[in-house]
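Final report, Chapter 2: Outcomes

The project's central promise was a pipeline that accepts a single protein chain and returns its three-dimensional structure in a standardized token representation, suitable for archiving and comparison. That pipeline is now operational. To close this chapter, we reproduce one record exactly as it appears in the project archive, with the input sequence first and the structure output second.
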Amino acid sequence: MALRQHLLAAPALASRRRPFPGEDDDYAKARKSLLAEEIDLRRKITRVAEQRRALPPGPLIGPDYRFKDANGADLGLAELFGDHDTLVTYFWMYGPDRERPCPMCTNWLGSVNGNAADIKQRVALKIVGGSPVERQQAFAQERGWQALDFVQTVGDDYARDYHLLNKDGTENPALVVYKKNGAGVRLFWKSEMTREMADPGQDPRDAPDIASLWNVLDLTPHGRGTDWYPALEY
């Protein structure tokens, strides 16, 4: 906290090295102002991450949720950690009633596949779905994903308890992070921004946005747009 008290104000830090060729005064002034806002945003993201890490111990996971892995083994939640004490899971919308998986889940998993080997150096990473694990893997092969580990939920208790399965049978995606110690497995953090929390005119999403697709488009003149969504095929 002491370091924060000595941070320079963002406008004081927002000093650009030199103008770009052909840059006029209007652009230079607006870009410098935006740079200060970007510095403030970076600090806000850092503060939120610190608050997340400082959460008190979450609830102990009581029910014996079961999962099936690619080898057909029946596993409990604690067994998904492997040698790590932290487990990151993503529940994707590819239940047995869906002919094809959610395009946005697919888009996000494609980017995670490229980072999975690095992520798994620090934490366990499992992709959880309601479909048979063989079906999930078949789609992964179709997409060329080689670094993701898929597991299937056994029964609906897990999905219901974590608000991933709606009464009408539709699904909700979610990132869920667990921590394991001598006391057992505890919930550390779960994404909880619902559709009802979305701002007018915006798709519901967590903050910071976990999708590299939208973060890249946010850098462009037209932004995310309102008439386009990722597809499974082009």
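Archive annotation: The first strand starts at residue 66 and ends at 68.
This record, like all others produced under the grant, will remain available to the consortium after the project formally closes.
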